[in-house]
Amino acid sequence: MLHRAESSHRQLRETGPSRTGLAGEALRLFHEDPANGWTPARVAAEIGVSRATLAECFRNAVGTPPMTYLTGWRLALAAGLPRRSDATLNAVARQVGYGSGFALSSAFERVYGISPQEHRAAAPAR
Asked: For residues 51 and 55, what is the distance between their CA atoms, to the nearest angstrom?
């Protein structure tokens, strides 16, 4: 399941930033600063549109609501960080926009079905 989710987010990552329009602007914000406390209202204000317009354009272009995409993006980043560093779970959480290691761990388990620690233990040694 983790591999499929990473693959899905990799595909969105590769196509997302090259898209034009509102969805592309939102993707740019998410990718440049995933740790920002983004809300639909903040993203819409940053782009200069209503929340409804943002939601509709983003869903049409990307296939998922903006905050769902952002959650997936943050978790995909978190899934890769422990493999590349010895960062603590709290440090990884802060880097990707979660307030604590507990919050990140809860979201990670909900989406991937395993804890970040289990994911780290299963990662190939480098």
From this structure: 6
